[in-house]
Design a protein that fits this description.
The chain is an alpha+beta fold. The protein is built from twelve helices and 14 strands. Helix 5 packs across helix 6. The protein is flat, with a radius of gyration of 25 Å. The strands form four sheets. It has a five-stranded antiparallel sheet.
Length: 422
């Protein structure tokens, strides 16, 4: 990557001293020369290197009171860029408030076994789609089972492909309603508070569904069996792999339930738009390599080449949807079945409130209904809510006197654009 003129670092507390962009600018060009990298990862490196630099243009805010100037450069808006997720995340969460149901929720994690990672790496679109489909089918099937809940539940699933050390580790984080709408739609059936479904049952059903789906994809010739998956081109080898996985216990992790919608929003804020590595986890970059925090106080140091290789493992296929909704949460039910479920929940809560009053317990609704519409918030207000930074105030004199002007063209032109290697 050609050197860029980075945006001036703010003195605000918490700004990382080292960013993924710094590593890309220092080592990205050498990495691209040494490795055959496809168009999508090349685009990611190019965008990250140019993000918030003069290359992308920008504007300057000038205080009409004291004359202080604050240049701001445009973001790349690439979904793999660590600096470009906060505002998208905040907007998404605001829009999701309309669909959240006033009930308790569970957090379930489905993980792709290590034996299937090589296959997934060269078949990301296919395997990730199957991961979503089979996890959702598992949860919805158990929800409709009369021996379990006998109801239609709601699921929101988020794909992550990384471990804390940036290794390839695909898994789904699922938010699951703690109850469901009865199959005839007449009432809301509340599930147990501390228990969703047996994890052994979840694992066995999920594993069977995923392996069956992979076998069908293999038989239909839908899998790329090159690169790390070349050994599976032999049908006997593929069959042996699946047979071994059928015999293996599949572990599904069920985390403690959320208390209500507020905790769901807090969770979504941490997981929905996360990338493989945030800038705040980076510790140093020197001749030994790149050091970053893994878990707690533990760190790992990788060569710059290995760091970039691992980072690019998590570039998703073009237009791949990594957040999906199923059951009651599916888009097709947003104005129909989902609203019926909301009505049934509130009616059940009202009935419990009346019963509580009759017994002198003063019971009230467990959760207030969400707003019936979502107010669109501009990005300046979102930034203020996320960081406490009010862009309307001058950072020098504190007056609300900032006037925006286009960034002078000579500033933009003075920084070389990154090479178009896509």
């Amino acid at each position: 990557m050609h050197p860029h003129r980075p945006a001036p670092r703010r003195a605000a507390t918490g700004r990382p001293r080292l960013e993924v962009a710094d590593i890309v600018r220092a080592h990205g060009e050498a990495y691209l020369r040494a490795h055959a990298v496809s168009a999508a990862p090349r685009r990611v490196l190019r965008d990250i290197a140019a993000c918030r630099t003069a290359v992308l243009g920008g504007h300057v805010d000038v205080c009409t009171s004291c004359g202080h100037e604050r240049p701001s450069y445009n973001s790349c808006r690439n979904r793999h860029c660590p600096k470009c997720q906060s505002l998208s995340q905040a907007r998404w969460i605001a829009e999701r408030q309309l669909r959240i149901l006033p009930t308790h929720y569970f957090h379930v994690v489905f993980t792709l076994p290590a034996e299937l990672r090589a296959l997934a790496l060269v078949n990301q679109q296919t395997v990730f789609d199957l991961l979503f489909q089979c996890a959702a089918q598992t949860l919805l099937t158990l929800g409709r089972d009369p021996k379990r809940l006998g109801a239609n539940i709601g699921v929101t699933a988020v794909l992550h492909t990384w471990s804390r050390d940036l290794s390839f580790h695909p898994h789904l984080h699922c938010i699951v309603t703690g109850g469901g709408l009865s199959l005839d739609g007449s009432r809301w059936i509340e599930g147990r508070r501390g228990y969703l479904f047996p994890v052994q049952v979840l694992g066995k059903l999920f594993g069977g569904k995923l392996l069956d789906a992979l076998r069908q994809a293999y038989d239909a010739g839908e899998l790329d069996l090159t690169g790390g998956a070349a050994a599976l081109e032999n049908p006997a080898a593929f069959a042996a792999l699946l047979d071994a996985l059928y015999r293996k216990p599949w572990v599904v992790y069920a985390k403690p339930p959320f208390a209500g919608p507020e905790q769901v929003f807090a969770y979504l804020g941490r997981y929905t738009h996360r990338v493989g590595l945030s800038n705040h986890r980076l510790r140093s970059m020197d001749e030994r390599g790149v050091c970053f925090r893994t878990r707690g106080d533990k760190t790992v140091t990788l060569s710059a080449e290995e760091f970039l290789r691992r980072f690019l493992l998590h570039v998703l296929p073009h237009r791949f949807v990594k957040i999906r909704h199923f059951g009651l949460m599916a888009a097709c039910h947003a104005t129909t079945t989902l609203e019926v479920a909301r009505t049934r929940i509130l009616a059940a809560n009202d009935a419990r409130a009346v019963e509580g009053d009759e017994h002198g317990e003063g019971c009230s609704r467990e959760h207030a209904p969400p707003p019936r519409h979502v107010v669109k918030v501009d990005w300046c207000s979102l930034l203020a809510a996320l960081t406490g930074i009010d862009l309307s105030l001058c950072p020098r004199c504190g007056q609300a006197a900032m006037a925006r002007r286009p960034l002078p063209s000579y500033v933009v032109a003075s920084s070389a654009a990154p090479p178009d290697t896509s």
